[in-house]
UniProtKB/TrEMBL annotation:
One of its GO terms (molecular function) is oxidoreductase activity. Keywords: Oxidoreductase. It comes from uncultured Rubrobacteraceae bacterium. It holds the Pfam family FAD_binding_3. Residues 97-167 form the FAD-binding domain. The keyword Oxidoreductase applies. Gene3D superfamilies: FAD/NAD(P)-binding domain (3.50.50.60). PANTHER family: 3-(3-HYDROXY-PHENYL)PROPIONATE/3-HYDROXYCINNAMIC ACID HYDROXYLASE, FAD-DEPENDENT MONOOXYGENASE. The keyword tRNA processing does not apply. This is 2-polyprenyl-6-methoxyphenol hydroxylase and related FAD-dependent oxidoreductases.
Length: 238
Protein backbone atom coordinates (compact mmCIF):
# COMPACT_ATOMS: atom_id res chain seq x y z
CA UNK A 1 0.00 0.00 0.00
CA UNK A 2 2.81 2.40 0.88
CA UNK A 3 4.54 1.75 -2.44
CA UNK A 4 1.35 2.05 -4.49
CA UNK A 5 0.52 5.43 -2.98
CA UNK A 6 4.02 6.84 -3.43
CA UNK A 7 4.71 7.15 0.31
CA UNK A 8 8.41 6.37 0.47
CA UNK A 9 10.28 4.75 3.36
CA UNK A 10 13.67 6.21 4.27
CA UNK A 11 15.74 3.44 5.82
CA UNK A 12 18.04 4.02 8.78
CA UNK A 13 21.38 2.18 9.16
CA UNK A 14 20.12 -0.51 11.57
CA UNK A 15 19.48 -3.41 9.19
CA UNK A 16 20.02 -6.90 10.56
CA UNK A 17 18.37 -10.26 11.13
CA UNK A 18 17.20 -11.83 14.37
CA UNK A 19 17.05 -15.60 14.80
CA UNK A 20 14.27 -16.37 17.31
CA UNK A 21 13.64 -19.66 19.08
CA UNK A 22 11.89 -20.86 22.24
CA UNK A 23 12.52 -23.45 24.91
CA UNK A 24 11.54 -24.15 28.54
CA UNK A 25 12.57 -21.34 30.89
CA UNK A 26 15.47 -21.98 33.30
CA UNK A 27 14.58 -21.90 36.97
CA UNK A 28 16.57 -18.71 37.54
CA UNK A 29 14.25 -16.80 35.16
CA UNK A 30 10.85 -18.27 36.06
CA UNK A 31 9.69 -15.60 38.49
CA UNK A 32 8.12 -12.51 36.98
CA UNK A 33 9.08 -11.31 33.52
CA UNK A 34 12.85 -11.69 33.17
CA UNK A 35 14.79 -9.92 30.43
CA UNK A 36 18.47 -10.21 29.52
CA UNK A 37 20.83 -8.72 26.95
CA UNK A 38 23.91 -10.88 26.35
CA UNK A 39 27.04 -9.34 24.82
CA UNK A 40 30.56 -10.71 24.49
CA UNK A 41 33.62 -9.46 22.64
CA UNK A 42 33.64 -10.40 18.94
CA UNK A 43 30.36 -12.33 19.24
CA UNK A 44 26.86 -11.54 18.02
CA UNK A 45 24.69 -10.07 20.81
CA UNK A 46 21.53 -11.83 21.94
CA UNK A 47 18.39 -10.98 23.88
CA UNK A 48 16.15 -13.31 25.84
CA UNK A 49 13.08 -12.97 28.00
CA UNK A 50 10.24 -14.99 29.48
CA UNK A 51 7.40 -14.97 26.96
CA UNK A 52 3.64 -14.76 27.55
CA UNK A 53 3.41 -18.56 27.63
CA UNK A 54 6.07 -18.93 30.33
CA UNK A 55 8.71 -20.21 27.90
CA UNK A 56 12.06 -18.57 27.22
CA UNK A 57 12.29 -16.54 24.00
CA UNK A 58 15.86 -16.22 22.71
CA UNK A 59 16.97 -14.00 19.84
CA UNK A 60 20.39 -13.86 18.19
CA UNK A 61 21.09 -10.53 16.45
CA UNK A 62 23.18 -10.87 13.29
CA UNK A 63 24.20 -8.76 10.28
CA UNK A 64 22.25 -9.27 7.08
CA UNK A 65 23.30 -12.40 5.22
CA UNK A 66 24.92 -14.14 8.20
CA UNK A 67 22.16 -16.66 8.87
CA UNK A 68 23.01 -18.88 5.91
CA UNK A 69 26.49 -19.43 7.31
CA UNK A 70 25.03 -20.10 10.75
CA UNK A 71 22.67 -22.79 9.43
CA UNK A 72 25.64 -24.65 7.95
CA UNK A 73 26.98 -25.19 11.48
CA UNK A 74 25.46 -26.32 14.77
CA UNK A 75 23.21 -23.25 14.89
CA UNK A 76 22.08 -23.84 18.48
CA UNK A 77 25.62 -23.89 19.87
CA UNK A 78 26.69 -21.00 17.64
CA UNK A 79 23.75 -18.92 18.88
CA UNK A 80 24.95 -19.19 22.47
CA UNK A 81 28.45 -17.76 22.16
CA UNK A 82 27.49 -14.51 23.91
CA UNK A 83 25.22 -16.14 26.51
CA UNK A 84 26.38 -16.67 30.12
CA UNK A 85 27.56 -20.20 30.82
CA UNK A 86 24.61 -21.27 32.97
CA UNK A 87 22.10 -20.18 30.31
CA UNK A 88 24.02 -21.83 27.47
CA UNK A 89 24.13 -25.10 29.43
CA UNK A 90 20.37 -24.95 30.02
CA UNK A 91 19.54 -24.31 26.36
CA UNK A 92 21.82 -27.10 25.15
CA UNK A 93 20.20 -29.47 27.66
CA UNK A 94 16.76 -28.45 26.29
CA UNK A 95 17.84 -28.80 22.64
CA UNK A 96 15.15 -31.39 21.86
CA UNK A 97 12.40 -29.07 23.15
CA UNK A 98 13.38 -26.02 21.10
CA UNK A 99 10.66 -24.42 18.96
CA UNK A 100 11.99 -22.73 15.83
CA UNK A 101 14.13 -21.11 14.69
CA UNK A 102 12.24 -18.26 13.03
CA UNK A 103 14.03 -15.52 11.09
CA UNK A 104 12.99 -11.90 11.66
CA UNK A 105 14.01 -9.52 8.89
CA UNK A 106 14.65 -6.19 10.63
CA UNK A 107 14.31 -2.94 8.70
CA UNK A 108 14.29 0.39 10.51
CA UNK A 109 13.16 3.69 9.02
CA UNK A 110 10.55 6.42 8.71
CA UNK A 111 8.27 7.67 5.99
CA UNK A 112 8.72 11.41 5.40
CA UNK A 113 4.98 11.55 4.64
CA UNK A 114 2.45 9.37 6.42
CA UNK A 115 -0.60 10.42 4.47
CA UNK A 116 -2.09 11.10 1.07
CA UNK A 117 -5.82 11.65 0.45
CA UNK A 118 -7.62 8.51 1.59
CA UNK A 119 -4.57 6.85 3.23
CA UNK A 120 -2.94 7.25 6.66
CA UNK A 121 0.06 5.11 7.63
CA UNK A 122 0.45 4.04 11.25
CA UNK A 123 2.79 1.74 13.17
CA UNK A 124 5.34 -0.22 11.17
CA UNK A 125 3.81 1.04 7.92
CA UNK A 126 4.95 4.56 8.83
CA UNK A 127 8.01 3.83 10.98
CA UNK A 128 9.33 0.24 11.23
CA UNK A 129 11.16 0.03 14.54
CA UNK A 130 14.21 -1.81 15.78
CA UNK A 131 13.45 -4.61 18.27
CA UNK A 132 15.74 -2.83 20.79
CA UNK A 133 13.62 -2.18 23.93
CA UNK A 134 10.62 -3.80 22.18
CA UNK A 135 8.81 -0.50 21.58
CA UNK A 136 7.21 -1.24 18.19
CA UNK A 137 3.80 -2.38 19.45
CA UNK A 138 3.66 0.33 22.13
CA UNK A 139 4.33 3.06 19.59
CA UNK A 140 1.84 1.62 17.10
CA UNK A 141 -0.88 1.61 19.77
CA UNK A 142 -0.10 5.22 20.59
CA UNK A 143 -0.35 6.04 16.88
CA UNK A 144 -3.83 4.52 16.84
CA UNK A 145 -4.95 6.48 19.92
CA UNK A 146 -3.73 9.79 18.50
CA UNK A 147 -5.32 8.97 15.13
CA UNK A 148 -8.65 8.32 16.84
CA UNK A 149 -8.40 11.59 18.77
CA UNK A 150 -7.94 13.55 15.55
CA UNK A 151 -10.15 11.60 13.15
CA UNK A 152 -13.25 10.77 15.19
CA UNK A 153 -14.36 14.41 15.72
CA UNK A 154 -13.91 15.12 12.01
CA UNK A 155 -15.83 12.02 10.96
CA UNK A 156 -18.66 12.80 13.38
CA UNK A 157 -19.17 16.15 11.68
CA UNK A 158 -19.40 14.60 8.23
CA UNK A 159 -16.57 13.69 5.91
CA UNK A 160 -15.18 16.93 4.52
CA UNK A 161 -12.06 15.99 2.49
CA UNK A 162 -10.02 19.04 3.44
CA UNK A 163 -10.67 18.61 7.17
CA UNK A 164 -9.95 14.88 6.96
CA UNK A 165 -6.62 15.44 5.21
CA UNK A 166 -5.68 18.08 7.78
CA UNK A 167 -6.51 15.69 10.62
CA UNK A 168 -4.29 13.00 9.08
CA UNK A 169 -1.42 15.46 8.80
CA UNK A 170 -1.95 16.46 12.43
CA UNK A 171 -1.51 12.81 13.46
CA UNK A 172 1.95 12.71 11.89
CA UNK A 173 2.88 16.08 13.38
CA UNK A 174 1.97 14.89 16.87
CA UNK A 175 3.49 11.42 16.67
CA UNK A 176 6.69 12.00 14.70
CA UNK A 177 8.77 13.65 17.48
CA UNK A 178 8.30 10.66 19.79
CA UNK A 179 9.13 8.22 16.99
CA UNK A 180 12.34 10.09 16.22
CA UNK A 181 13.38 10.11 19.90
CA UNK A 182 12.69 6.39 20.26
CA UNK A 183 14.63 5.50 17.11
CA UNK A 184 17.54 7.68 18.22
CA UNK A 185 17.68 5.82 21.53
CA UNK A 186 17.47 2.46 19.77
CA UNK A 187 20.26 3.47 17.40
CA UNK A 188 22.48 4.48 20.31
CA UNK A 189 21.99 1.15 22.04
CA UNK A 190 22.48 -0.78 18.79
CA UNK A 191 25.81 1.03 18.35
CA UNK A 192 26.85 -0.19 21.78
CA UNK A 193 26.02 -3.75 20.77
CA UNK A 194 28.15 -3.26 17.66
CA UNK A 195 31.08 -2.17 19.82
CA UNK A 196 30.71 -5.42 21.76
CA UNK A 197 30.40 -7.56 18.65
CA UNK A 198 33.58 -6.19 17.09
CA UNK A 199 35.51 -6.08 20.35
CA UNK A 200 36.27 -2.37 19.98
CA UNK A 201 38.27 -0.38 22.51
CA UNK A 202 35.05 1.42 23.49
CA UNK A 203 33.49 -1.86 24.59
CA UNK A 204 36.53 -2.87 26.62
CA UNK A 205 36.72 0.60 28.15
CA UNK A 206 33.00 0.58 29.03
CA UNK A 207 33.22 -2.93 30.50
CA UNK A 208 36.14 -2.05 32.76
CA UNK A 209 34.59 1.30 33.64
CA UNK A 210 31.33 -0.39 34.65
CA UNK A 211 33.18 -2.75 36.98
CA UNK A 212 35.11 0.11 38.53
CA UNK A 213 32.35 2.72 38.81
CA UNK A 214 29.30 0.49 39.20
CA UNK A 215 29.76 0.37 42.97
CA UNK A 216 29.07 4.11 43.30
CA UNK A 217 25.54 5.45 43.73
CA UNK A 218 26.02 8.36 41.30
CA UNK A 219 27.09 5.94 38.56
CA UNK A 220 24.10 3.69 39.26
CA UNK A 221 21.77 6.69 39.07
CA UNK A 222 23.34 7.82 35.78
CA UNK A 223 22.78 4.37 34.28
CA UNK A 224 19.18 4.26 35.51
CA UNK A 225 18.59 7.71 34.06
CA UNK A 226 19.67 6.50 30.65
CA UNK A 227 17.32 3.53 30.88
CA UNK A 228 14.44 5.90 31.55
CA UNK A 229 15.07 8.04 28.45
CA UNK A 230 12.48 6.22 26.40
CA UNK A 231 9.89 6.27 29.20
CA UNK A 232 10.42 10.01 29.60
CA UNK A 233 9.93 10.50 25.88
CA UNK A 234 6.63 8.64 26.08
CA UNK A 235 5.47 10.76 29.02
CA UNK A 236 6.36 14.01 27.22
CA UNK A 237 4.20 12.92 24.30
CA UNK A 238 1.17 12.07 26.45
Amino acid sequence: MRTRTGLQLELLPEHYDVLWFKMPTPEAMREGCSFMIAVAAKQHPAICYTSWDGRLQYGLIMPKGSLKELYEKDWVSESLRSAPGWLAEHILAMRDEIEGPVKLNVLVGRSPRWTVPGILLLGDAAHPMSPVRAQGINLALRDAIVAANHLVPVLKNGVEPGALDAACQAVQAEREPEIMRAQKLQSREAAGQGDARFGSWRFEFAKRGARLLGRYRWAQNAWLGRQQDCASALRRSS
